Amino acid sequence: MKPMSHRGGLDRRSLLTAGLGLGGLALLGGRAQARVRLAGPFGRGAEERAGRVLVLVQLTGGNDGLSTVVPHGDDAYGRARTATRIAANEVLRIDDYRGLHPALKGLKRHYDAGRLAIIEGCGYPEPIRSHFRSYEVWHTANAKGRASGQGWVGRLADAAFGVEETPELVVHVGGTAPYSVYSLSHPPVIFNTPQSYRWIGPETEDLAAYRQAAEADSLRLEDERRKRSKKKQTGSEAAIERLRGVLADANESSARIRRAAVAYTPRAEYPADELGESLRIVASLVDARIGTRVVSVELGGFDSHDNQRAQHDGRMRVLDGALSAFLDDLQGRSVADDVLVVVFSEFGRRVQENGSRGTDHGTAGPMLVLGNRVKGGLHGKHPSLTELDRGDLVHTTDFRGVYAAAIERWFGADSARVLGGRFAPIRVV
Predict the structure, then answer these.
(1) Alpha-carbon 424 to chain mean position
(2) Does CATH place domain 12-419 in 3.30.70?
(3) What is the spatial distance between Cα 33 and Cα 14, in angstroms, rounded to a whole number?
(4) For the chain (length 429 residues), average pLDDT per consecutive 10?
(5) Whole-structure pTM value
């Protein structure tokens, strides 16, 4: 996978143990990033690095919104769905029209507690039914996709955090980072596990030894930098100096993340699956307050063209187990009020089933927003199941309104600067 930044210079990824395509990303852009010596339990004081956090959960493959927030009271739903239909006596009832998928028991509990907002009918004008092209629209918040430039999270980092050089500002936990985190000035850290994100150096898992090694390396590099600053550097010396800066940054960032993950004791039991482990890591980073402000994770397996019911039921169980554990884990912690979770998919599925007991690529679908400060309940309008566009739902909410809420009402930044236009924030926070 290519580096996320196209700027010249040396990148952290080439200097880290990548494992299966893994590694941290942060480019120099001609100079070493500023570094702060390790201080306190996780490298920097909590007050300096504290702040609100946005967690993005992508349901990859096109989640069937009609099997997630089920319109059980709509006769058109019963006529369009047979093999995938969820009966009225199965749903976790919200009202006489809709209910949650029966596997979402944990999320229903959080909905009842006011910590879950459901935004119905999310999509965008002139929808695209190609996974990759629709990804680009959602990841850039722009119909032009990648041609529009940085990902929307990259632009958010510029607008909300300015010149902040915290290496762990934006993190993706997973094998391949989404385009949303592509940034010229705030490249993301990427890893599957904290153990896979480290500079080839200390192999010990002992926290004290690892911390001591990171501190010693940082002090040594700072001393060498001071000595070199006293004489004129040649081009090769300057390049070596930049390299040393990258190594020190990578060493310190890696150590902070590893220590946070190893030292963390969850207050809830996470499922033993990939999403459960990813969100447990996210909780450890948030609780450690090492400066992470946006985190991205992914759950795949939603492209259910055939035999959808069993597949989708399984995906809902995985989502519910991991996400409800994450929310339960945060309760009672000092960071509980500082976390906002946004769940989305690149498109929904068609209303009518196909001939293979599944559904094909569609358009609009629900987004979920979760957290202690969320204005829970239903937002937006459920799309009509009879007034369709070529068999697809017509979106009733522009998804960028949800992004605008996160940008403006969560981070206090200018959403027009990030989204390239003004979209009314959905009042979920």
Answers:
(1) 22
(2) no
(3) 16
(4) 32 33 31 28 35 97 98 98 97 98 98 98 97 97 96 96 87 93 90 69 41 51 60 58 58 82 94 97 95 97 97 98 98 96 98 97 98 98 97 98 97 97 97
(5) 0.82
